[in-house]
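Deliverable D5.2: sample structural annotation.
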Amino acid sequence: MEYDYDLFVIGAGSGGVRASRISSSLGAKVAIAEEFRVGGTCVIRGCVPKKLLVYASHFSEDFEDAEAYGWTVPKATHSWQTLITNKDTEIDRLNGIYHTILSNNNVELYEARATLIDNHTVQVGDKTVTAKYILIATGGTPVMPDVPGIEHAISSNEAFHLEELPKRVIVVGGGYIAVEFAGIFHGLGSEVIQLYRGEQILRGFDADVQNVLAEEIRKKGIDVRTHSNPASIEKTNSGLKVTLEDGSVLETDAIMYATGRKANTDGLNLEQVGVELKPNGAVVVTPDSQTTIENIYAVGDVTDRVALTPVAIHEGMAFAETVFGNRPRAIDHSNIPSAVFSQPQVGTVGLTEAEAREKFGEVDIYKSQFRPMKHTLTGRPEQAFVKLIVDAKSDVVVGAHIIGSDAAEIIQAVGIALKCGATKAQFDSTVGVHPSLAEEIVTMREKFVVA
C-alpha cells in the first residue's frame, strides 16, 4: 500500500522532534503534528523556563553572601515582569530553533491537533493523512485534584505566566516540581508554605536525601508541612482562604498545585484503534517502545516510564534507529542520573538505600554531611550531603546521592561511573579535586554503621 508518509509523529516535544529528525536522516518521509508550540513541555513550560526562574531566585542569597566577601551591595529590587518578559523571549527563540530543525531535516510540520482514525490514518486539523508508522509522543500534563474551589488554583503551566509575583504562595505537593517552585517563589521574595499530604517530601528518593533536603529548605524559611492537604479553596476580598483537611485555615495570594502529571492521551482515539493504555492513561509499550499495534510506537512521558527529557530523546533515537536504521535497540532505563533544582540542589543516580538492600541484601553505606567551604565566611547554616551505596559482595557502587551546590553538574559524571559498573575501590583510587564538594565522592572511607 502507498502511504502519504513513512512516519507520522503526534507531538513535537523533545522525543517526537528527535525521532522525526533521525528518521528523516535515515531516509524516511516524515511529518509531525503539534497543537500548541514546537518544543514540548521541557522547552515551553518545563525544564528550560523553570531553570531560568531558579537562576533568578538564587540572586537574593548571592547578594547577601557577597558582603561576607567584602562586597558592598546596595539594596536590590526585583521586577517579576522583566524576568517573565526575558524568559518569554528566550522561549520564543528556542521555539524558532525547533521549527528550523524540523525544516532543515525535511520534516513536514502540521500545526494542528492530530487524532487517529485507524492504525495507519490520522486526522490532522481538517486533513486526513496516512502513514506506514505512527509515533505517539504527546507527553504529559498536570493533574488538578477535585477540590472545591480548585478553579482558583494554578498549576506549573500558569506559574510561568503570572502577571505579578504573589506576596504569599501555597505550593501543594512533595515532588520535584513542588520543591523547585517553592524555592523559586521563596528566593524571589514570596512567603511560601509547602503542603504535602505524605510522610516526607520527594517520595521515591533516598530517605536521607528526603530528610536532609527537607531540613535545608526549612532553614531557608520555607514552611514545609507534611501530613497536610487542602480540603477547599475560597476566594476572598484579600486573596484566597484555604481550609485544610484538619480544619485549620490559611490565607494566601496564590495556590499552586504540583501533585502529579498524567499521560496526554485524552481524545487521541488510541484505544479505539487497539492501542492498550494503562489505568492512568499511559501507553503500554514493549522495551523497544512498540505498542500493542505493530506499526504504532510511543516514546517519552506519554509511556510513563521515566519522565525525563533526555530519556525521551534517547527513546526517540532508539525508535528511529530500530525502525528505519536497521539497528534494533531498546533503552536501558537503569542508572539514569537526574537532578532536582531545589535550593540546595539534589543530584541522584542509581538505587536508593532501601532499593539496594532489597536487591542485594548486604550493602555498604558511605555518608558525609558538612558545611560547604563557601559558607565558612557567610555563616549560613546550609549543609552539603554525599552518600554512596555499595553492593557489599561485588564492591560495585549501585547508588550515589548528592545535596549541594552544583549537584546536578557533579552527578552527570558520577552517572558515567555507575553506567560502567565502577567499584568503590575504583572511586577510592581516583584523585579528588580540592577543594570541592565533588571530591567527597572519592574520599569517603568509613562505612556508615546503623546503630
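Annotation notes: The chain has a mean pLDDT of 95. The first helix runs from residue 14 to 25.
The annotation will be released with the project's public dataset once the embargo ends.
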